[in-house]
């Protein structure tokens, strides 16, 4: 028989309906279906007015959430009480996992409360809990997350139990207690919040009283006798926020700190700053309008390039603050002239001396090499030796020492006059004036200046052609565009006062060109180190050639046009006439020939950058090729080959960086696999003993039923021990867990 009542469809072998008491008795293959839930039982006694009743030897199913029990009491619209119950969200039969309990009280869309719960994998009991609460909805809920397991050589076996707190609609937190077999217990906290759709913040932190670190030579060799093997509290925190304030003001904040300089290498997954030269703490306030930009920006750096894990931070240089104001391109009154203004104030400071105390070493060929003065008196002193330390004599020597801190005020106005010739060639002449003043924390030579004027002319045109069915307005089409361009710049006048900041030679004669970069090689340069690129003039007489090609596809979807760039190729090279005019046997007027290729297809993509150095006859390359399909399978190869280029000197090919990165992965019904390793093709010329720099693989098992994931991660980052990680993710609300995205490999092999 069948009964239809309101939104319920009832089936049973036999039924008795009591109209006065508004009850119904159902016997034999009972099934009650609504839009939200399906009930089944051998027998059911229901009150169809109050929508309550009893089900004997029955089940309740909503989506993939299912309860079974000897006796089910329907106590409300979506509330049930189940005796001798079984709960699961697996769609397979028998279910991959389930919880049994002496009694379950459940509210669909709410929680299930299980007494004397036993987790079963298949039919095998795994563990018992006296009481368990699980959510039956996909909303964020406070509760225990599944345990995590980790294994590494220094830490041993580690077990972590996270607890999630849904603090409010716009904030949550996860506290994790993690216990290492050898290191000891650790507390970890992640806190997130959102103030609006575009304003948010996140905090990560951890604390551990490390039982291993205190006994290691890497720290004890720098400690005094009474400090040896004493416990060390290790911690880190990382906080970031982006907040949009009234009147278009934006505040950005980034905080990074750790108890010691080895924390990032010991726990790279936590800090995500392994192999970084410094930890950056940065705060900024900015405001952009249609034609202007204001910003206040400060950075505090923690120098990680020290052997002493507990070393101080006197050598780090901080940007505190930098003030910027820019007037973006705007027409001058009602004319076709366009002007812009940039004003920048920078203060560089540190707690140590305002300069680096350097000494000179004369090489066999007569050249001199500068190095930091140290207590061992060696140009290549061992920084891991506690007896070798940097030495400051307290007196600035303008012939050798380098200024590292000071203030800079930079003013750069520019005026343009854009034109079009025959409506085909874009022609933009430009005139720039720049004046920069410096002040240093020195008793003598406390200030200097530099000013120059530069003229610039750029020209560009466009060639294009469209391919495809040009008669059908709804057909797919392709457009090929070519943009050739040339820029000529000349700095006919430059003036600066004589000062040690510019080195021991006249700054106006400094041979800087477009290919010069600030590097350690500048320590031996007679033209100084300076603060950054803004202190140097590169384009004194420069011609830059370039051509850009683009392939654009126009397609139609639901009657609307869609555009996407399939490919782009840009090739540039510069000729430095200033270098050519110098009487220098090592002059190199032609810059590297640079090319950038980017191709984006449905199943193929590549990104390649190439720099060919004509005088050294070597090529720096970085290329990535990725093949993928709609099933989630992909294969990616990336190659990086870089030489250290010093103009006028031969290339030391043995010092090159040559890495090959292989990445692959696929998704299937019951297993997901991803893996990556970085092969060092130049390992024989490095201090490494292995050809593999780093590696990682991720395996996810998805047992039948779409109700849980088992994730295995095994990885080794550069310079760190291997770690094995296991995690279980159960679907308590019936929503299948998504697989780990491929970009997760980036954080495992950096």
**C-alpha termini separation:** 66 Å
Largest sheet: 26 strands, antiparallel, barrel
Look at the helices and sheets and give the structural class: mainly beta
Share of helical residues: under 10%
User: How many strand elements?
Assistant: 44
Q: Would you identify the regions where 5 or more consecutive residues have pLDDT less than 50?
A: none
What is the CATH T-level topology of the domain at 2-137? lipopolysaccharide transport protein A fold
CATH architecture of the domain at 2-137: Sandwich
Q: Taking Cα atoms only, what radius of gyration do you get, to the nearest Å? A: 34 Å
Secondary structure tally, helices: 5
Looking at this protein, list some descriptive labels.
about 750 residues, mainly beta, lipopolysaccharide transport protein A fold, 26-stranded antiparallel beta barrel, eleven-stranded antiparallel sheet, 5 helices, 44 strands
Overall description:
- This protein is mainly β.
- It has a domain at about 1-135: lipopolysaccharide transport protein A fold.
- It is about 5% helix and about 55% strand.
- The strands form four sheets. The protein has a 26-stranded antiparallel β-barrel. Strands 1, 2, 3, 4, 5, 6, 7, 8, 9, 10 and 11 form an eleven-stranded antiparallel sheet that branches. Strands 24-27 form a two-stranded antiparallel ribbon.
- A hairpin with a 4-residue loop joins strand 3 (about 15-20) and strand 4.
- The two termini are about 65 Å apart.
């Amino acid at each position: 028989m069948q009964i239809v009542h309101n939104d319920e469809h009832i089936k049973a072998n036999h039924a008795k309906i009591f109209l006065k008491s508004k009850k119904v008795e159902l016997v034999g293959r009972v099934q009650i279906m609504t839009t939200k839930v399906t009930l089944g039982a051998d027998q059911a006694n229901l009150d169809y007015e109050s929508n309550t009743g009893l089900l004997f030897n029955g089940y309740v199913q909503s989506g993939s959430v299912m309860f079974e029990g000897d006796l089910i009491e329907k106590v409300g619209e979506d509330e049930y009480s189940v005796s001798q119950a079984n709960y699961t969200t697996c769609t397979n039969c028998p279910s991959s996992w389930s919880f049994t309990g002496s009694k379950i009280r459940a509210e669909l869309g709410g929680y299930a409360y299980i007494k004397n719960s036993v987790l079963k994998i298949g039919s095998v009991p795994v563990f018992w809990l006296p009481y368990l609460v699980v959510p039956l909805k996909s909303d964020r809920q406070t509760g225990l997350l599944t345990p995590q397991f980790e294994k590494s050589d220094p830490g041993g076996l580690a077990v972590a139990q996270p607890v999630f707190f849904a603090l409010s609609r716009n904030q949550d937190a996860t506290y994790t207690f993690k216990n290492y077999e050898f290191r000891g217990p650790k507390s970890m906290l992640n806190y997130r919040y959102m103030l609006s759709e575009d304003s948010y913040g996140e905090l990560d932190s951890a604390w551990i009283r490390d039982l291993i670190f205190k006994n290691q030579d890497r720290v004890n060799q720098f400690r005094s006798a009474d400090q040896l093997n004493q416990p060390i509290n290790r911690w880190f925190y990382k906080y970031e926020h982006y907040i949009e304030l009234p009147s278009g003001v934006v505040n950005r904040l980034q905080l990074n700190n750790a108890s010691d300089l080895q924390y990032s290498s010991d726990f790279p997954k936590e800090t995500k700053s392994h192999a970084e030269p410094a930890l950056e703490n940065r705060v900024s306030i900015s405001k952009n309008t249609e034609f202007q930009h204001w910003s206040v920006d400060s950075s505090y750096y923690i120098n990680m390039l020290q052997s002493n894990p507990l070393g101080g931070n006197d050598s780090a240089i901080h940007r505190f603050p930098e003030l910027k104001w820019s007037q973006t391109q705007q027409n001058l009154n009602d004319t076709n002239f366009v002007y812009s203004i940039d004003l920048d104030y920078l203060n560089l400071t540190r707690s140590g001396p305002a300069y680096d105390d350097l000494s000179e070493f004369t090489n066999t060929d007569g050249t001199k090499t500068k190095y930091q003065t140290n207590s061992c008196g060696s140009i290549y002193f061992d920084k891991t030796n506690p007896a070798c330390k940097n030495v400051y004599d307290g007196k600035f020597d303008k012939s050798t020492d380098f200024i590292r801190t000071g203030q800079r005020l930079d003013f750069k106005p520019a005026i343009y006059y854009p034109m079009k010739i025959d409506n085909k060639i874009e022609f933009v002449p430009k005139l720039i004036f720049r004046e920069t003043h410096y002040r240093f924390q020195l008793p003598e030579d406390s200030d200097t200046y530099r000013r120059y004027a530069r003229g610039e002319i750029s020209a560009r045109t466009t060639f294009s052609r469209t391919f495809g069915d040009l008669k059908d307005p709804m057909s797919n089409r392709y457009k090929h565009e070519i943009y050739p361009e040339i820029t000529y710049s000349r700095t006919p006048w430059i003036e600066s006062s004589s000062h040690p900041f510019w080195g021991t030679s006249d700054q106006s004669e400094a041979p800087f060109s477009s290919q010069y970069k600030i590097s350690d090689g500048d320590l031996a340069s007679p033209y100084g180190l300076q603060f950054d690129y803004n202190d140097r003039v590169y384009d004194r007489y420069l011609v830059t050639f370039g051509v850009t090609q683009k392939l654009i596809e126009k397609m139609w979807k639901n009657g609307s046009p869609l555009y996407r760039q399939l490919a782009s190729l840009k090739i540039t090279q510069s000729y430095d006439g200033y270098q050519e005019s110098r009487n220098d046997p090592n002059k190199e007027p032609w810059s590297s020939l640079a090319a950038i290729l980017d191709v984006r297809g449905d199943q193929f993509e590549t990104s390649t950058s190439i720099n060919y150095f004509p005088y050294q006859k070597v090529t720096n390359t970085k290329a990535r090729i990725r093949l993928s399909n709609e099933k989630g399978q992909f294969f990616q190869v990336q190659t990086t080959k870089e030489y250290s280029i010093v103009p006028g000197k031969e290339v030391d090919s043995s010092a090159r960086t040559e890495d090959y990165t292989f990445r692959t992965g696929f998704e299937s019904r019951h297993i997901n696999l991803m893996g990556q390793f970085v092969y060092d093709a130049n390992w024989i010329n490095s201090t490494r003993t292995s050809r593999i720099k780093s590696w990682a693989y991720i395996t996810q098992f998805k047992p039948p039923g779409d109700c849980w994931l088992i994730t295995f991660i095994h990885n080794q980052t550069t310079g760190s021990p291997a770690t094995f990680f296991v995690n279980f993710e159960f679907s308590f609300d019936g929503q299948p867990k998504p697989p780990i995205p491929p970009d997760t490999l980036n954080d495992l092999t950096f």
